[in-house]
């Protein structure tokens, strides 16, 4: 498994940096960084480490940036998930990408290839699911929503997916994701944390399969892609919230 940071947008688009579990890397302007960027608006640096299947990033810039569409304040450290976007400036967008050697070997144009890619995505997500059970429950690492905010966000996404079901080019994907998301939320509200945790991971797998990866994104309508990315962000946060309780129930 290879873990790579890719510059998806900005003056340095196309550049990348591979991570390993032995050292922390820095991204910023100047020769002291492992990935040197040219974006003139960039200030400070990002510190990124990858260990035991978990990628963590620390914001050492002087301004608030965005990770997964959510604010990321100076000095904070967060978990950075596969295919999640990190935006340090208005121009530059970074994406974390977990690659598998077998993924590139499959023919890209065949129907068999699509099934293989989906299987690879699922297999890549399973280790991350296990790692979440062992993450430290440090409240300063990830910003958590209140139950009220979580419920509001869920209802908003539910309505968006329901509306997309009426679309000819996205109804099938929206229906699949919505069905799993409803079941996961139902189990969460019933306090069945371990079951909800598993179902949220299934939602994430479906979304990742529909979106594709940063290097081979699926050609989705803009509104569909935006909604699926928002569902992924919501699910990531619920997995963090459910992790401690799910671990306790499973032990």
What does this structure look like?
There is one protein chain. The protein is globular. It is 45% helix and 20% strand. The protein is of the alpha+beta class. The longest helix is centred in the last third of the chain and has 29 residues. The chain contains six helices and eleven strands. A six-stranded antiparallel sheet has the order 2-1-11-10-7-8, with no helix packed on it. Strands 4-3-5-6-9 form a five-stranded mixed sheet. β7 and β8 form a beta hairpin. It starts with a strand and ends with a helix. α3 packs antiparallel against α4 and α3 crosses α6.
What labels would you give this structure?
251 residues; alpha+beta; Tumour Suppressor Smad4; 2 domains; six-stranded antiparallel β-sheet; five-stranded mixed β-sheet; 6 helices; globular
Instruction: Report, as a whole number of angstroms, the end-to-end distance.
Output: 28 Å
Low-confidence stretches: 101-111, 131-142
Structural class computed from helices and strand pairing: alpha+beta
> For the residues shown, what is the average pLDDT?
80
Strand content: 15-25%
Question: How would the blueprint of this fold be written?
Answer:
Blueprint (H helix, E strand, L loop, with lengths): L1 E8 L6 E4 L5 E4 L6 E2 L8 E7 L2 E7 L4 E3 L2 E3 L4 E3 L5 E3 L5 E7 L1 H5 L5 H22 L14 H18 L6 H19 L3 H19 L10 H29 L1
Parallel strand pairs: 3-4
Antiparallel strand pairs: 1-2, 1-11, 3-5, 5-6, 6-9, 7-8, 7-10, 10-11
Nutshell version of this structure?
By secondary structure, the protein is α+β, with helices and mostly antiparallel strands. It has helices at 101-105, 111-132, 147-164, 171-189, 193-211, 222-250, and strands at residues 2-9, 16-19, 25-28, 35-36, 45-51, 54-60, 65-67, 70-72, 77-79, 85-87, 93-99.
């Amino acid at each position: 498994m290879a873990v790579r940071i890719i510059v998806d947008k900005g003056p340095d688009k196309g550049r990348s940096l591979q991570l390993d579990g032995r050292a922390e890397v820095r991204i910023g302007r100047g020769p002291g960084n492992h990935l040197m960027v040219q974006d003139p608006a960039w200030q400070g640096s990002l510190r990124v480490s990858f260990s035991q299947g978990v990628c963590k990033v620390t914001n050492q810039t002087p301004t608030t940036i965005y990770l997964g569409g959510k604010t990321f304040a100076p000095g904070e450290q967060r978990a950075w998930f596969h295919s999640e976007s990190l935006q340090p400036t208005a121009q530059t967008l970074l994406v974390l990408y977990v690659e598998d050697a077998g993924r590139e070997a499959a023919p890209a144009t065949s129907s068999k290839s699509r099934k293989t890619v989906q299987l690879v995505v699922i297999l890549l997500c399973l280790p991350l699911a296990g790692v979440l059970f062992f993450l430290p429950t440090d409240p300063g690492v990830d910003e958590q929503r209140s139950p009220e905010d979580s419920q509001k966000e869920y209802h908003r996404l539910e309505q968006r997916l329901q509306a997309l079901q009426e679309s000819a080019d996205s109804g099938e994907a929206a229906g699949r994701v919505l069905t799993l998301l409803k079941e996961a939320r139902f189990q969460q509200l019933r306090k069945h944390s371990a079951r909800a945790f598993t179902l949220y991971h299934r939602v994430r797998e479906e979304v990742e399969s529909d979106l594709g990866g940063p290097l081979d994104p699926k050609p989705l309508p803009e509104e569909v892609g935006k909604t699926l990315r928002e569902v992924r962000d919501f699910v990531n946060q619920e997995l963090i919230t459910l992790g401690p309780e799910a671990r306790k129930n499973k032990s």
